[in-house]
Amino acid sequence: MNAEEARQVDATLRRLGIPGIVAPEDPEHAAGKWRVYDSADPATRQDITADTLAAVVAKFREANPEPFGNRRSGPTRGFIIPPEDN
């Protein structure tokens, strides 16, 4: 992610109450890629981007446990094409 995407991710994590520090991979190159870390110290931090993504998904599942594709509450309309009789 870039710096703007990182800002949005940071705001989302805060709103959801998920811990993590969004920072550039290379502290000297803020224009490069960004990740989510467990602490701000570049010498000791661990990348937790994958765990953070899983936590975000879990939060949204808690909010709506029904799978996305099963939201239909009524009949579905469509077309039935009869087979050709030869």
Protein architecture, described:
This protein has 86 residues and is an alpha+beta fold. The protein contains 2 helices and 2 strands. It has helices spanning 3-16, 49-63, and strands at 21-24, 34-37. It has a two-stranded antiparallel ribbon with strand order 1-2. The protein is elongated and about 75 Å long. The N and C termini lie far apart (58 Å). 8% of the residues are buried. The model has no long low-confidence stretch (mean pLDDT 84).
Can you summarize this structure?
The protein has 86 residues and is α+β, with helices and mostly antiparallel strands. The chain has helices at 3-16, 49-63; strands at residues 21-24, 34-37.
Give the tags:
single chain; alpha+beta; 34% helix; 86 residues; two-stranded antiparallel sheet; 2 helices
Which band does the percent of strand residues land in? 5-15%
Largest sheet: 2 strands, antiparallel
Low confidence ranges: none
Structural class by secondary-structure content: alpha+beta
* Shape summary: elongated
Distance between the termini: 58 Å
Helix content: 25-40%
Order of helices and strands: HEEH
Helical element count?
2
Mean pLDDT: 84
Gyration radius from CA atoms, angstroms: 22 Å
Question: Would you count the extended β strands for me?
Answer: 2
